[in-house]
Amino acid sequence: MVRDPSVAEHEWLSRDVAARVRAGDLPAAETDARLKLYGVVDGALVEPIYATREGDEVPAYDRRAVDDTLPVRVTAAEFQ
């Protein structure tokens, strides 16, 4: 995973998204629809879920109670 504040201040990018944005193959503005959301418990990433963003809000992580969530933008191919 890669953090690129010029694309998203509070979201990370999968390596594939980051590489495609950097190469100019994927506009940064078109990377925000598909997310892999990780729960964060005691500083560790747990049980990711895949979610589609509707509007500007990051969907809720609903697998279990967590301290925080880490949204990671993924490509269509990575979205399972």
What order do the helices and strands follow?
EEHEEE
Strand order in space, largest sheet:
1-2-5-3-4
Q: What is Rg?
A: 12 Å
Task: Tell the overall outline.
Answer: globular
The main sheet comes to: 5 strands, mixed
- Gap between N and C termini: 17 Å
Note the total helix count. Answer: 1
Q: What fraction of the residues are assigned to beta strands by DSSP?
A: 25-35%
Number of strands: 5
Mean of residue pLDDT values? 93
Strand pairing plus helix content: what structural class?
Answer: mainly beta
Helix share, percent? 10-25%
Number of domains: 1
Poorly predicted segments: none
InterPro entries: DUF5804 (IPR043827)
Description:
It is a single chain. By secondary structure, the chain is mainly beta. The chain has one domain (2-73). The chain is 11% helix and 34% strand. The chain is built from 1 helix and 5 strands. It has one helix at residues 15-23; strands at 2-3, 12-13, 34-41, 44-52, 68-73. Strands 1-2-5-3-4 form a 5-stranded mixed beta sheet. A hairpin with a 2-residue loop joins strand 3 (34-41) and strand 4 (44-52). It is globular and about 40 Å long. The two termini are 17 Å apart. The relative contact order is 0.27. InterPro entries: DUF5804. It holds the Pfam family DUF5804.
